[in-house]
Structures are given as C-alpha cells and as structure tokens.
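re: that chain from earlier
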Amino acid sequence: MTEPGPAATILVVDDDEGLVVLMAESLRAEGFNVETANSGSAALAALERHTPDLMLLDLKMQDVGGQALVERLKRHHTPVPFLVVTGQGDEKVAVEVMKQGALDYVMKDTALIDLLPGVVRRALEAIARDRELTLTQESLRESESRFAAAVRATNDGVWEWLIPEHRVYFSARWKAILGFEPEEGPATVEQWRALVHPEDLERRDNAFREFLAGSGTIFSLENRLRHKNGSYRWLHARAVLERGRKGEPLRMTGAAADVTERKQLEKEILSISDREQRRIGQDLHDGLGQQLTATEFMAESLKADLVNLKDTRPDLLAQITRMGGFLREAITQTRALAHGLTAFMLDASGLHAAVAELVQRTNALGRLRCRFVCREPVLLQDSETAGHVYRIAQEAVANAVRHAAATEIVVTLTARGGHVVLKITDNGKGMPEAKKHGSGIGLQVMHHRANAIGAELTIESKRDKGVTVICRLRRNP
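^ sequence. v structure.
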C-alpha cells in the first residue's frame, strides 16, 4: 500500500474560521502541508494558483455552496479529489455529492478533529492506488497497441492455447491465412488438429508432447495445415509457454507465419542443386572420364611398343607403367564421383540399392569400415522423396568420413509401422559444440531436405562416442 508523502498538500474549505484553524492544525501535526479558504470564491482562487492533492469541502457556505462549487470545478478546472465535511442531518446531501465524485464524507461533531487525519490518510492512499492503476492500464493499452502494430507489420496470425481449460483462440489474420472468415475456422483443439496434413500429424503431436513435458518456454514448429479450398499451406508457428509454479504448462501464446512460398523456393533450390549435381556428374563421366580412359589406352599402347623394341629402356618402361597406374586410379575416382553426383535409377527397390552402393563406395576408399544394415528392401515409389533421403544419407556419411575421425560407420534402413527410418551412426569424436545446432551448411541442407519431404531429422552427438543422424519419414500407403 502506498503511503502519502509528507509533502501532500491539503486544501481545507469552510466558512467556519475556528473549525478551519482546528482542522488545519490537526493535519499539520500529521506532517501534511495545509492551505485554507474560508469561502467558495477563495477556494476557486486558491485552485487557480495551485492544485492540491486533496480538498476538504464544507457543503454549506455563504457565497458558493459545496455542490455548486463541485459543478464549477467540473466545468472549469482539472478535477480535484475531495472529501465532504457536513453537519448533522445532511448525510443525504453528502451521499449525493459522493455520486458526483467525492471520495468520502466526515461529520462535523466532537470526534471530527481526532478522526480527520486518518480519514485524509486513507483518502490519499486510495488516490495513489487509483493513479497507479490508471498508469498500469495506460501502459497495458500502449503495449497492446505496439503488439498489434507489430503483428500487422509482420502479417502473422496470432494464436493462443489455454492448456488446462483445453481452449484455443485464433485471430482473424490467422484464419485468413487459411482462407477462413473471422467467424469461421477452428474453434477447438480437435478442430485445429484436424487441419494438420496427415504426413505432418505425428511429427506435430510429438513436438507438442515433448515440449510440454520438458522445461522449455520457447516453441517453434513448421507444418502444413489445410486451407479452406482443400490445398495445404506451410505455417511456421512460434510461441511462448507460460508455466505454473511446479512447471506445469498453462498457456501458449504465439504467432504463425505463412511460409509456403519459402518452402516452395527451398524445394526448387534443392531441385536445382540436384540437377546441377547430375550435370557435373555426367560431365565427369562423359568428358573427363572418357579423356582419362583414352589417355590410359594410349599409355598402354606406348608401353606395348616399348616392349617390342630391341633397345628397351627399363626406366622409361617403369615410368609408363606407373603412369598407367595413376590413370587407372584417376579413372576409378572420377567414376565414383560421377556416380555419386548423378541421379540413381529408381525402381521399387531403388533407394535400398542406392544406399547399398553408397556404402560400398565408402568402403572402397579404405579409410574406415562402412556397414549397411537392411533386412528387407525398402519401397519408396516417389523418386523425389527417395532422392532426398539418399542425399541425406550421402551427406551424413560424407561428414563422418571427413570430420569424425571414425573407424566405423553403420547405415541402417528400415521400413516399419508405416515409416521409413534412415539411421547413420559413427564411432568418431563427436560433433563440435558450435555445429550441434545445425550451423554447418551440410547440416542445414539435410534439415531442408527433411523439411521438403515432411520428414523428422534428429542429430545426436556425444563427445568421443560419435554422431547419430536419424531421418524418420511417414510412408504413404
């Protein structure tokens, strides 16, 4: 509770000069500054000079009555908080004046002087509380106005989930993103969930469940929601979670942005990247690979000619033999590069075969052991989806070979329970702390590929115990 300061100024207005003196002395003894006026006109003049913190007003004065003075103050002055001082029998009039804004009234009787300081102090405390509340409300309105302006500027839709009450709220902008009018769209948690794309539903439910069960307060998720016209839009939902004293989730408040165009651009960039890789692979195979092969043939022919000569120089023959070996190794590496860059042919078992060949090529490098675990062929009829899964495997294996200092990589591919799961594990030194959150370009590309096909990508790293990359994809029947 706010205590009135010693500088609070009280204006005592009464035409009984003796009573005015007694009231003023009583209030000054309590540390208040006191000004006096013995008529209504004197009170108006005093108010012109200075606005007091509180006014004590006699209802019955000779020149200007208390009620008339209140009316004039309303019309011509900044409102001044005041208490009514009234005589016996005027309680009804005092109540009427309180309806016009008086804080309280005090009776002119033998207890007036003793009670007055306490009445004044309580009135000043009430005034302080009202001022603090007003400032808080104004600050809240300004904050809400800034928030609304920020939301309009970002073109995001606002949403809120009251978790214990199982209630949700979506702003008109949020609904408009999905083609709904303000009075349409989801009104319950179940209706909200029903809009989620079937391929994203399990990933979305897992993300919410794990987040709410944890201790975090910042949430982020990208998933597809059904538009009113039946199409799907990608929404990036971000929210702040309010928790109770025991950490229990209470309320999530967030914004959702339509990132459909960004997702389409990401998909196109990945497609361009794949096409460029295929072009480079074909150039390596058909251009550089063929030239190296022709050069190898020429070296072998030259070697045969030298062998047939009577005066063969052993040192020259040895050099040509080494040259042929170098060319054969260059051809092998070129073909491996070309095969890794060009798209694999997908039939019903295309992904299985491509990953198996990736493992075989990695083994052929001789740097480490690479094993492939796949108990049965994995069927993915969508070549684009299979291509992204393969590229994720390729990037994860390449990272392990280049950076992990591992001696073994295990690539596991399984299809179970409506999901395809790709898992790449190495026994290396683990990932540097700076890259654990996907700051590397390779990791970002893997995440983009997973997002493009609605897969869930997790990367786990333990120091000196290696890295595990898991891509979990819901397979369409």
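Residues 260-308 form the longest helix (49 residues).
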